[in-house]
Amino acid sequence: MQRVAVVTGGTRGIGEAISLALKDAGYKVAAVYGGDEAKAKAFTHQTGIPAYKIDVSDFKQVKDGIAKITAELGPVDIVVNNAGITRDGTMHKMTPEQWEAVIHTNLSSCFNTCRAVIDSMRERNFGRIVNIGSINGQAGQYGQVNYAAAKSGIHGFTKALAQEGAAKNITVNAIAPGYIDTDMVRAVPPQVLEKIVAKIPVGRLGQASEIARGVLFLVADEAGFITGSTLSINGGQHMY
Ligand code: CAA
Predict the structure, then answer these.
(1) Taking the alpha carbons of 174, 216, 166, 31 in that order, is the dihedral positive or negative?
(2) Low-confidence ranges of the chain (pLDDT < 50)
(3) Number of folded domains in the chain?
(4) Which family does it belong to (predicted)?
């Protein structure tokens, strides 16, 4: 049976690598994107993976979007909550808009997608949910109270939903990436990034494909005994 996977933020960065890895492994993939229309078109053209424009921070849009994906591809077996943004700034400069945008896009999105698929997963007695957290949700990061709070929230969300899903063969796990070579990390001021990379024992940024590998491991049918866990993929930068 070809399982259906939804990847949010699935046309760029880490999400793009996840969408591609899932497709190559034989899954039917729907890549959800928020705004970059041109990139999404190019992505579908290159990969054959359909892209769906859905604002993941909007409950109604997600509900309708998942219904559309279900009608076109079939019931959703796998959700990878990867969509995320940064609006970095120290507390004394951060606006309520920066706080809210990050909390809603990075954390409320997990509620929105999971709420939209959970009934169907429970009925079918199968589900694989992977939430992309962050090293900065585990350890905190200067200039990121919003992002660290949202990502840390993802780790709690994962453990709570894992307990609810267990009896229905719905596993819920998180991956906590470290600094990965994507547009998001390239936006960090170079002098700041240089200091961060100096603290990574492996001595380099990670690659998006190295996160995708972890996702493949966690969504497999055979991974039914792994739930509520966090897989840290960070080059040794934070061990706990
Ligand atoms: N620890 C302690 N002090 C720090 C610091 C740190 N990590 N970073 C900066 N400072 C200090 C600076 O040295 C500076 O001090 P002085 O005034 O004494 O020189 C002071 O704080 C102000 O720093 P900035 O000039 O950088 O302040 P700013 O307001 O212009 O910018 C900032 C602040 C936006 C937070 C900027 O430092 C920044 O962009 N930092 C990067 C944050 C980061 O790592 N984001 C991760 C994005 S990638 C991601 O999130 C993906 C993931 O999951 C890993």
Answers:
(1) positive
(2) none
(3) 1
(4) Belongs to the short-chain dehydrogenases/reductases (SDR) family.
Whether 89 maps to a domain, the answer reads yes
CATH number at residue 64: 3.40.50.720
The per-residue pLDDT for range 108-155, each reduced to its tens digit, is 999 999 999 999 999 999 999 999 999 999 999 999 999 999 999 999
Record the pTM: 0.96
- The span from the CA of 180 to the CA of 196, in Å, is 12
Q: Is residue 100 part of a domain?
A: yes
Residue 68 lies inside a defined structural domain of this protein: yes
Rg of the Cα atoms in the chain: 17
141: Cβ below 6 Å to ligand 1? yes
Q: Give me ligand 1 centre to Cα 142, in Å.
A: 6
Q: Residue 153: what pLDDT?
A: 98
Q: How far is the CA of 145 from the centre of ligand 1 (A)?
A: 12
**Residue 188 in contact with ligand 1 by CB distance below 6 A:** yes
- What separation in Å is there between the alpha carbon of 197 and the centre of ligand 1? 14
